Amino acid sequence: MAELQLPTPLVSTAWLIEHLADSKLRIVDVRFSLADPLAGYMAYREGHIPGAVYLNLEADLSAPLRPDRKGGRHPLPTPEAFARTLSQAGIGNEHWVVAYDDSGMVAPRLWWMLRWLGHDAVAVLDGGVRAYLEAGGKLEPGSSTYPPTTFTPHPRPEMLLDAEAVAGRSVDTVLIDSRAPERYRGEVEPLDPVAGHIPGAINRNWADSLDTSGRFKSAQAQRARFAEVEGKDLIVYCGSGVSATANLLALEVAGIKGARLYAGSWSDWVSDPSRPVARGEEG
Predict the structure, then answer these.
(1) Angle at 226 between CA 224 and CA 229, to 5 degrees
(2) CB 36: neighbour CB atoms within 10 A?
(3) Which of 11, 86, 125, 238 is catalytic?
(4) Is 238 a catalytic residue?
(5) pLDDT surpassing 70 at residue 261
(6) pLDDT tens by residue, 158-209
(7) Does residue 276 have a cis bond before it (omega within 30 degrees)?
(8) Which has the closest alpha carbon to 26: 116, 119, 109?
(9) pLDDT at 2 over 90
């Protein structure tokens, strides 16, 4: 009989509950609030899916913020640094990883980062902790740990772009801004010093990838969101390289492959005042 494989890029709560005791499984809680960086960890300590370890968006899934703001508000760690984080958390190349959050925004960051390091056995829990509880799942307090192991990275640099590559992109490449429409248009900017978007970008709000229950919409619905750009070379960005990964996951659900991430995103773009800024609608 063939070995059961991890469904990707999403797993259902039913699948997770059925496999909680599987020794190959590593569950990672990545709940995080930009308004309160400790809130996610406190929620984890109060109650998490059994066996889940906690990784913090800013401490574990990002490198330290640079004084000159280059790399954006959540710079990617080096592959070697992130591999050390995974190893210390007990996540090795042999493990299946399921990431969950309470927003639909942060778990895709871990999903994307693991794939960036060449690890395809990773999925996001569809609907997050809310869906797990609605399915009758139980939480446990405190913290969970696994013995440290060794994660060997096999980076895929082709998945990632920097500001220079974005600025020099082909005229046929479609640049997708994943932020809320009012931020894209430059009407408000709650997080970064400059409002607006990268000239030429179109807007596809990452939050539209989710339904009212917090689950990712169907493949058909995701294809409809991206119908105008299917078959084109795609670059996706957001404010700091987090919510853009939800759109990248949505593209994967839609069966649209090969989109790349501008990880520094808007917060990196505006760290250099010489870069152009656009406001209003485009496309």
Answers:
(1) 130
(2) 9
(3) 238
(4) yes
(5) yes
(6) 999 999 999 999 999 999 999 999 999 999 999 999 999 999 999 999 999 9
(7) no
(8) 119
(9) no
CA distances from 2 to 5, 14, 127, 246 (A): 9, 21, 28, 31
Q: Which residues pair with 82 in a beta bridge?
A: none
The tokens 């070697």 sit on which residue? Answer: 80
Instruction: Round to whole Å and give the CA distance between 3 and 6.
Output: 10
- Written as six digits, the tokens of 136 are 């009758």
Torsions phi, psi for 53 (to 5 deg): -95, 165
Alpha-carbon span 283 to 279, nearest angstrom: 12
Task: Identify the DSSP state of 206.
Answer: G
* 5 pLDDT tier (thresholds 50, 70, 90): confident
Distance between first and last Cα of the chain: 51
For 113-155, the pLDDT digits (tens) are 999 999 999 999 999 999 999 999 999 999 999 999 999 999 9
**Structure tokens given for 133:** 């509880």
Signed CA dihedral, 252, 258, 264, 269: sign only: negative
For residue 210, the number of C-alpha atoms closer than 13 Å in the C-beta half-sphere is 22
For residue 44, give every residue at least 6 positions away whose Cβ sits within 8 Å of its Cβ, in sequence order, or none: 29, 31, 52, 54, 143
